[in-house]
Sequence to fold (121 residues):
Amino acid sequence: MYYYRKKYYNKEGTLKKDAPKHLLMLDANSKELKELCKGDKIMEKFRDNVEKLNDDQTVIDFLTKEEEDEIKKNSYYAEGKETGKLEEKLDLAKKMIQNSINLETISKITGLTKKELESLK
Fold:
């Protein structure tokens, strides 16, 4: 999810207008959702099904507020952990580059691509 947030969300935390429709749908209100789906039969059918689910009391009551908050917290924690791992790899790669270690070797050790390593120089 980190990749998609970085690519399709702006600094304010809202989706950019050029994001794919299926991502824009996640952030849309009912009116925006209707407009996004207009003219696309598959998307319209998807929207109709989402609206039915949103009105279904069983779905509404599926998770308690506390359970929902816990899921959100855990997903943010996991995402932050992944972000931290990437930052550690980038820091390690920078140090290796400063010590004149071959980019191919750095790539094998860190899993970063040569293009990513080039951008660190």
Observations:
- The mean pLDDT is 78.
- The radius of gyration is 21 Å.
- The first helix runs from residue 2 to 8.
- The CA atoms of residues 23 and 30 lie 15 Å apart.
